[in-house]
Write a structure and sequence with these properties.
The complex is a heterodimer. Chain A is an alpha+beta fold. Chain A is 28% helix and 25% strand. The chains are: A alpha+beta, B alpha+beta.
Chain lengths: 740, 286
């Protein structure tokens, strides 16, 4: 269902046409990166570190290079040392270790051979001598006094730092006086929460084919969320200008943030350059788990003060994110994601902590789920202790336009209250909780971003149109682009062909991340369409011998009073005589991304003898601003919910003592299967974003923020146990039940 | 690596004897992932599914002969079998997905010798026997004599399982199998429990209780069986059986479960299985 106040009347926006790429996908014709094969292509296989932290003493590749079918071998020595100050330095070292391996599975060498089997045989013949170094894997161990240094090139950001450290960032945010507020509070709840590292779990492993030509230019076909970033990072790691790299995006089999960085493209490019033949790399699932992603593990302590009537007066939180062997801003973003409630007094201390684990990557609202699990659990505990309805408590404290986030940024027009009200009024919430079950509520926030986008729109000579963007379509965005173009131009959506072009065929476009594509790339499409409409109005005015100011665009035609409307198709047919092809491009740096709030409601039952949790009913409400294609908005809400429920219940990196991953497969890394879950019900709330021509807010990410606390809050109400560690797998729940 | 699909037991035997490093397979649902993971690299893959006897199911003279390579989907879809052995049928139907079910077999499940194999506790509870192709013809053994440890069997070089035999379920007797997994399907048992009960009215006349995934092999819990025989399934008796089941466990901590969890849940599943099997034995299985 959709909950919308005073919806504007649109012809195409808000409808549900079959996606333009749908036929190829359901018939198996769609080409993913691993589907591409070039003549003479080689296959490459990696040598990876068997140690979590070690100095590379020597690498002997002589035997491998002499083996049958082997055409090229690379090690870190085949890539330039960018120097630690280079913004791509960490990426370059992660792509191929130089002197040190920082985690179990870190790439050390790669072999290109005429078959994958021959490459694997040769990789096994490469002899690497290591000198093991002490390693740390947990936040506590990495932050302990005297902890071994994970990465000697890491200096703490946002504070003065003279020595390398295991802390990548330290963030302190404060407003009001928390100590006074806690002293004055009627109720204070304080808890410590932990979450396990989790993988994005995209179904398609990383894959690429790279052909480096005799001219030294590399053509890359790959699976990514942002081929312009693949271009810049690949060029940087190779020490090349970006103009030497052309990247063509393949269809993408999921990314969820995990394909916003690169792992394999520079390796394939260098091997191809050395061998003079195209090189294909397809990661195995094992490699994906061991050497890409994951989202950080975390430890979060939260203290919340409240009055007896449910006003939340103070929040104090200590947050640490285990970001793996290379620094990032997970801690900062986690602190920034605290934005749902007014909290007049607030004090946050957040850390990004290094460990000898794979470099963590973005995952759908990166860092927000960890913080929300903690805060939304404590808020729920306060509601239980004060015997206040969990939605009413949240409504009483919900941020509205003008309230500031933890960062001090005032919220623009947001729809948090509307989401809470939508759940409260829903058939789900209004219906009784099933016997033997309990109901959990939790909320989530995500910023969403704007960034740079480009679009080119061609009106073809037969009156159809082609919409070209640089945003890889990871969630149905081509259909959304076509719908906005159809609305602008007044064309049938099926007369529009939306395409994603390579890095040399469309203007620069930032990565598909931050729920930005329908918002920002959509703005570029709308702008290009409006420029085209101005052009077509002008041509019609000339044809009709009227002033352009007298011509409006309506229902796909130029309309001037006293004249028959001139339809787009006839303007297109006449274009050769009226000034040439009809085409327009727009590029912009989009401002005004609208934050998206979500509120989830879940009913579940706990088998108190086995600790097994069964989700019986689940509803996700989220503010989409305006749903351009409601089916794909619903898909995002459902996908985020399911990933969050998986994170809540069973997903976790299980490490062996040596830091190797013990469950590097989908058998033992347990994402939910279809039979685990009910149909996820959705409520699209539409509080339009005033900064977008159609009111769009991004919707891709927020859906993963509320599920962990939704599940934990329902378990608490079902079984009287407050689960503070993820995953809430049967053994952990049974232990808590035994201790109850 | 060579693939061969013999059409007779003798031909398969010869291939195994003549080719060191060869492996038989039925569904290969375990073997192919193991090969992909780089473990066995067989010289010859001997496909048993083309041998009629290995995929045939017959029911006559008060017993069943079930080919070792029969897909488990064919068993769960066989109403006569599934009605007579509801627990064994359920156990067989829990192995993997629908696609896997069309390949997976008891022969493979037993010969793979995973401590967590779902069919094994139910087969042992039902006194399943196996006919083995061996030097000089065939030999027979009980299922629990085949599996000797994780991945270990008493099958000799060149031996393979031809078929399983089961006596008809006697009147007043039925079985049940339950397992616990973190998900609802597509997973490996953290604990499995197979039970067969013969009821004399409300009283247990005979009991077999076999647990999986709680020791290096499936284990029979004699103490729990002894606690049941001659008693009704009242709370105290069930609790005693559950306690005996927990005590009999010799599990490990691993990524799928802890020692404590496996022990506790083994008792729970035993109790639940007993109630299901008793109900079926007393009231019929349909």
């Amino acid at each position: 269902m959709t909950a919308t106040e005073n919806p504007p009347t649109y012809t195409w926006v808000g409808t549900r046409p079959i996606r333009h790429d749908g036929y190829d996908k359901v018939t198996g014709k769609a080409r993913f990166a691993a589907d591409l094969d070039l003549p003479g292509q080689l296959r490459a296989v990696y040598v990876r570190s068997p140690h979590a932290h070690a100095r590379i003493v020597s690498i002997n590749t002589a035997a491998a290079e002499a083996m049958p079918g082997v055409k090229a071998v690379v090690t870190g020595a085949d890539f330039p040392d960018l120097g630690a100050a280079d913004p791509e330095y960490d990426v370059s070292v992660n792509v191929m270790a130089r002197d040190t391996v920082y985690y179990h599975g870190h790439a050390v060498a790669a072999v290109a051979a005429t078959s994958r089997e021959l490459a694997a045989d040769a990789a096994a013949a490469i002899v690497v001598e290591y000198e093991e170094l002490p390693a740390v894997f947990t936040i506590d161990d990495a932050m302990a006094d005297g902890a071994p240094l994970v990465n000697e090139t890491n200096f703490t950001k946002f504070v003065k730092a003279d020595e390398p450290s295991n802390l990548s960032t330290i963030t302190n945010l404060e407003r009001g006086e928390v100590d006074d507020a806690f002293a004055a509070a009627d109720l204070v709840v304080e808890r410590e929460f932990t979450t396990a590292a989790v993988h994005q779990g995209y179904i398609e492993p990383h894959a690429c084919v790279v052909d480096t030509g005799a001219d030294g230019r590399a053509s890359v076909w790959c699976s990514s969320q942002g081929h312009f970033r693949v271009r810049s990072s690949t060029a940087a790691v190779l020490g090349w200008d970006v103009s030497r790299v052309k990247v063509t995006p393949a269809e993408i089999g999921g990314g969820f943030g995990g394909k916003t960085t690169i792992y394999i493209e520079p390796v394939a490019a260098r091997l191809s350059e050395m061998a003079g033949r195209p090189v294909k790399i397809v990661m195995t699932r094992d490699e994906v788990f061991r050497a890409t992603g994951p989202a950080p593990a975390s430890k979060v302590r939260v203290k919340v003060g409240a009055t007896n009537d449910g006003e939340l007066t103070a929040l104090e939180a200590w947050m640490a994110y285990n970001v793996g062997a290379f620094g990032n801003v997970a801690g900062l973003v986690g602190a920034m994601s605290v934005a749902s409630y007014k909290f007049p007094n607030l004090k946050l201390e957040a850390y990004s902590v290094l460990s000898n684990l794979p470099k963590s990557a973005a995952y759908r609202s990166p860092s927000a789920p960890h913080a929300a699990f903690a805060i939304e659990s404590v808020v729920d505990e306060i509601a239980q202790k004060l015997d206040i309805d969990p939605i009413e408590l949240r409504l009483k404290n919900a941020a509205v336009e003008g309230d500031v986030t933890a960062m001090g940024m005032p919220h623009p027009r947001i729809g948090f209250v509307e989401c809470l009200e939508a759940v409260r009024e829903s058939e789900h919430y209004q219906s009784p909780v099933p016997d033997g079950a309990a109901r959990g509520i939790a909320a989530g926030f995500w910023f969403n971003i704007g960034e740079q986008s480009s679009a080119t729109v061609h009106v073809n000579e037969d009156g159809t149109a082609t919409v070209i963007t640089g945003s890889p379509d990871i969630g149905g965005s081509r259909a959304s682009m076509a719908l906005m173009a159809a609305e602008e131009l007044g064309l049938d959506v099926n007369s529009i062909t939306p395409l994603v072009a390579d890095t040399e065929s469309v203007g620069f476009t930032d990565t598909t991340e931050g729920s930005r594509t329908t918002f920002a790339t959509g703005m570029a499409v709308v702008q290009a369409c409006r420029d085209l409409i101005d052009d077509m109005r002008s041509r019609a005015a000339t044809t009709l011998s009227v002033d352009v100011g007298e011509v409006i665009w309506a229902d796909g035609a130029a309309v001037a009073e006293g004249h028959d409307p001139v339809p787009l198709a006839s303007i297109a047919a006449q274009s050769k005589r009226t000034g040439g092809p009809l085409t327009a491009s727009a590029s912009l740096n989009a401002a005004g991304a609208g934050p998206s709030f979500a509120v989830h409601c879940g009913d579940l039952a706990v088998d108190e003898e086995t600790g097994h949790t069964k989700v019986l009913r689940y509803t996700a409400a989220q503010d989409a601003g305006t749903a351009i294609h409601p089916s794909y908005v619903e898909g995002q809400l459902q996908g985020g919910s399911v990933q969050g429920i998986g994170w809540a219940l069973n997903e976790e990196y299980v490490l062996n003592d040596d830091g190797s991953l013990d469950n590097a497969s989908f058998l033992d890394y347990r994402i939910p299967v279809a039979s685990d879950l009910p149909m996820i019900e959705t409520i699209i709330v539409e509080v339009p974003n005033p900064s977008h021509p159609y009111g769009v807010r991004g919707v891709g990410e927020t859906g993963i923020v509320p599920p962990m606390a939704t599940i934990a809050n329902a378990i608490s109400r079902a079984a009287g146990i407050r689960m503070t560690a993820l995953p809430m797998s049967p053994p952990h729940v049974l232990t808590a039940l035994n201790e109850r | 690596m060579r693939y061969v699909a013999p059409t007779s037991v003798d031909e398969a035997r010869s291939l195994l004897v003549d080719n060191p490093g060869s492996r038989v397979f039925a569904g290969a649902t375990d073997l192919i992932p193991q090969i992909r993971a780089g473990r066995p690299q067989p010289s010859v893959m001997v496909d048993l599914k083309r041998i009629d006897r290995l995929t045939s199911v017959s029911h006559r003279d008060g017993g069943w002969a079930i080919g070792a390579a029969t897909p488990t989907a064919a068993l769960t879809a066989n109403p006569e079998f599934a009605t007579m052995f509801p627990g064994l049928s359920e156990a067989s139907g829990l192995i993997g997905s629908d696609q896997i079910q069309n390949r997976s077999s008891w022969g493979g499940n037993v010969a793979n010798a995973s401590p967590a194999a779902d069919s094994v506790p139910a087969l042992v509870a039902n006194d399943a026997q196996v006919v083995i192709a061996s030097a000089g013809g065939t030999r027979t053994a009980a299922v629990d004599e085949i599996i000797t440890g994780p991945g270990q069997t008493s099958l000799g070089d060149g031996e393979f399982i031809i078929e399983f035999t089961l006596a008809d379920m006697a009147a007043g007797t039925s079985d049940a199998y339950l397992r616990i997994i973190p998900r609802t399907e597509m997973d490996i048992a953290v604990v499995g429990a197979g039970v067969r009960l013969t009821m004399d009215g409300p009283t247990v006349a005979a009991a077999k209780i076999v647990l999986g995934a709680v020791a290096p092999t499936a284990i029979r819990v004699g103490e729990a069986e002894a606690a049941l025989v001659g008693n009704t399934l009242d709370e105290a008796t069930l609790a005693e059986a559950a306690e005996a089941a927990s005590a009999a466990c010799n599990p490990i901590n691993d990524k799928r479960g802890t020692i404590e969890y496996r022990r506790q849940v083994a008792g729970v599943l035993t109790k639940r299985c007993l109630l299901i099997a008793a109900d079926r034995a007393q009231n019929g299985t349909a």
